Amino acid sequence: LNNLSLLSPHQIEMAKMLLEMGQSHLFEHWPEPGIEDDEKRAFFDQVAKLDASYPGGLVSYIKTARKLLADSKAGRNPFDGFTPSVPSGESLTFGNDNFVQFEETGIREMKNAAFVLVAGGLGERLGYNGIKVALPQESSSETCFLQHFIESILASQEASCKLVEGGCQRQIPFVIMTSDDTHARTLELLESNDYFGMTPTQVKLLKQEKVACLADNDGRLAVDPKNKYIIQTKPHGHGDVHSLLYSSGLLNIWRDAGMRWVLFFQDTNGLLFKAIPASLGVSATKQYHVNSLAVPRKAKEAIGGIAKLTHADGRTMVINVEYNQLDPLLRATVNPDGDVNCETGYSPFPGNINQLILELGPYIEELTKTGGAIEEFVNPKYTDATKSSFKSSTRLECMMQDYPKTLPPTARVGFTVMDIWLAYAPVKNNPEDAAKVPKGNPYHSATSGEMAIYRANSLILKKKNVDLTVGILHYFTNRQRAGVKVEDPVLQVFNGQEVEVWSRVTWKPKWGLTFTDVKNKVSGSCSISQKSTLVINGRNIFLEDLSLDGALVINSIEEAEVKVGGSVQNKGWILENVDYKDTSVPEEVRTRGFRINRVEQLEKTYNEPRKFCLKP
Ligand code: UGB
């Protein structure tokens, strides 16, 4: 109390609030005024920041914490009274007419969408020292995740605007949610790469703040063991994105500019943009307020399951049940065996890949009521079965996919299931943990993430599609589009993980954003051997009767048109094993377990605005 004289009126108010909320331990062992006064003021600066950055302030945080901690201690299930069942959603098969139609609709809508990347997580499971969006998504083109995301958004913007009569100048807004752990490095990555071609004003960074840690079941705030003037803090989870977007004022700006959709996505899924056009098409066609992207899920896989929950009182909702909660919920209700695969080899509950498409109007309406606050949870690690103390401090957390929990029953909440090979291959696990993943379950490592990109590109090229219009008009010269003969993969082991190694095919998003784009770029009889690498770095590059057995890199400027055919044969690029423990190798190389030895390639660059033909 002696120290009150040091404080501003606002700081005094904060001190009173803390005392009223049972936080007097924070001031224990504070020395007399005159000693460590600056530290005391800095303490109140932190309190003010924690108070301001949480909806309802610290009072509300502590009250919610007490309630959730009591529920957790009592073993109360957040899904009490709810019975899960398998919901029905839109299931898409890559390349069929339905899929192509949804892609077309999606591209048309793209100019009305804003993209939001949640990238505040440091990725403890991955154990990488840098920010995850700076990792190369594959090492043939060495494109990092952030570059790929931005180029995909720019390609979508252009494709969508082209469909407007007379064109349009719309710039798709791109928001990145960062945290203290990632903010500076994300900004630096953008600035040192000229925003990867995006207009800097098109990109907005919103930094999430951490929340106060809790020391015990009474919701007492945890003090940093090394400094009594600091309250310990930890990340609050990706659910913060909703309140940050709301308080930024961006949603209303977007609405006034005629936007209709907000697309949320995570930081390391290199396949995602192959699934976005079609799923946005689903949202637009079905008029979904909420559309979650999903893939078939292996039981016990560390991705949430999408379930329909029906309460004893009749309420229902379609929602993600997080991976650690699905098994106990099933055991307690419909299946004593818990989360197990059914006859398809997958869990009956589709896996949430945390890509959400929200319709902007209803989203704003909801956030106006909630301020963007998302239902939270707490996950304390107790020292023993009495649950009276914690092994280490805990905190409240929230998840962005819990947004639908507060929606009224009239809200149209749906989901879209895609092929896994097309839509989902995140980089989340370090090599050691990935190698322990049960056989048949995805590794979610840097190794599998890269291999999945080659596999998806190979499968897309392989997919046959007869262009009916061409077929009818030119009966004798009817050509199959795409349908490249890509040799079968071989199995190889990197960092203890057995993966399929397909031909290393990569392309820029502007070359092949949709299946229709790809099939329009490929014709005749093309073939690619398994040992081959094909890097397509340009827009107007057409593969016609190409036979590739080696490495081929084509670079071209926008205005050039290049026809690539004939037989390309060379020693190519070889994958050489690297051990993840070998610290002499850069981290981003050793975490994937191989390096590319660029032995021999044909590389061509076309930087004049005219037509070229490459036919070795
Ligand atoms: N993230 C933030 O931006 N801020 C944070 O405070 C925390 C994370 P993780 P998680 O698709 O595989 C999610 O850690 O949370 C960002 C879903 O909950 O990679 O374990 C972070 O940067 C789960 O249902 O994943 O699991 C990253 O971009 C399932 O869908 C993103 O949030 C699973 O992802 C996800 O963080 C999955």
What hetero molecules are in the model? Answer: ligand UGB
The strand count comes to 31
Q: Terminal Cα separation, in Å?
A: 85 Å
Total DSSP helices? 17
List the uncertain runs. 466-480
Oligomer state equals single chain
Q: Radius of gyration from the CA trace?
A: 26 Å
β-strand amount: 15-25%
Largest sheet: 8 strands, mixed
Mean pLDDT: 93
Strand arrangement within the widest β-sheet reads 2-15-9-12-8-3-4-5
User: What class would the helix/strand composition place it in?
Assistant: alpha/beta
Q: What general outline do the C-alpha atoms trace? A: globular
What is the percent of helical residues? Answer: 25-40%
Summarize this entry quickly.
By secondary structure, the chain is α/β, with parallel strands linked by helices. It is built from 17 helices and 31 strands.
How does this structure look, described?
This protein is of the alpha/beta class and 616 residues long. It has an eight-stranded mixed β-sheet with strand order 2-15-9-12-8-3-4-5, sandwiched between helices. Helix 4 packs across helix 5 (145-162) and helix 4 crosses helix 9 (272-286). It is globular and about 85 Å long. Residues 466-480 have low confidence and may be disordered. Bound molecules: ligand UGB.
Features:
single chain; 616 residues; alpha/beta; eight-stranded mixed β-sheet; six-stranded parallel β-sheet; 17 helices; 31 strands; globular; binds ligand UGB
